[in-house]
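Project outcomes to date are best conveyed with an example. Our students and postdoctoral researchers have been running inverse folding experiments weekly, and each run begins with a structure described purely in tokens. The record below, which covers 211 residues, was selected by the lab manager from last quarter's runs and is presented without edits.
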């Protein structure tokens, strides 16, 4: 990691790369989202070499932001690392302390309790718990989970039958589709990404064949 940080500092130096020197936290935001999405895609392909490369790109974003922050005196990579190490230890008292748990559900409950304590007992608002940068389907799924909303195939069919031909109607049907996916234990974001990948693969094959 130190070598990666040194390279980023060299690229950001006055005699380094003009593009890298111009970047800010804000300008890099789309790349952070893109690299995380590409890493998720690599997991879906099952190709370990591809996943390794994409995780490297995600790590690059961590290094890039850390170097920019250190230049402005806000935090360093070491601060990032210390923070996540301390958080993992603090939120796993069943591993690093003497808290007893019987299953993963208790682990999640403890995690949420510890998170609340870290915020001095102030609960996070729902809008704070669902990142705005998530894909629309993933964001809807999290919102439905927080709201304890459920659905199934019949609810989706009802939404299709009743939804108006408008943006609002499309949104209602998509929300019902998300609920249907959740009722089967499926991640709608992952499912649609896989479908999109299949469409693009078909297009690539058609183009390669000259069709």
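After processing, the design step wrote out the following sequence:
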């Amino acid at each position: 990691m130190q070598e990666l940080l040194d390279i980023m500092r060299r690229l950001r130096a006055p005699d380094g790369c003009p593009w890298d020197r111009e970047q800010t936290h804000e300008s890099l935001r789309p790349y952070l989202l893109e690299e995380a999405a590409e890493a998720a895609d690599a997991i879906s392909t099952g190709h370990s070499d591809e996943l390794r490369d994409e995780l490297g790109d995600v790590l690059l974003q961590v290094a890039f932001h850390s170097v920019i922050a250190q230049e402005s005196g806000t935090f360093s990579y070491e601060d990032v690392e210390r923070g996540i190490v301390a958080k993992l230890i603090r939120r796993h008292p069943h591993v690093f302390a003497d808290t007893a748990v019987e299953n993963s559900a208790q682990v999640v409950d403890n995690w949420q309790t510890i998170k609340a304590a870290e915020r001095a007992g102030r609960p996070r608002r729902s809008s704070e718990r669902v990142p705005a940068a998530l894909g629309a389907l993933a964001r809807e799924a999290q919102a439905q989970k927080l709201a304890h909303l459920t659905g199934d195939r019949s609810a989706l069919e009802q939404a299709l039958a009743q939804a108006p031909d408008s943006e609002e109607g499309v949104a209602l049907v998509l929300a019902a589709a998300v609920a249907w996916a959740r009722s089967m234990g499926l991640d709608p974001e992952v499912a649609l990404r896989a479908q999109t990948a299949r469409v693009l693969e078909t297009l690539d094959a058609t183009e390669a064949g000259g069709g």
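The chain is about 75% helix and 0% strand. The chain has two domains: 2-77, 132-208. The training component of this project remains on track.
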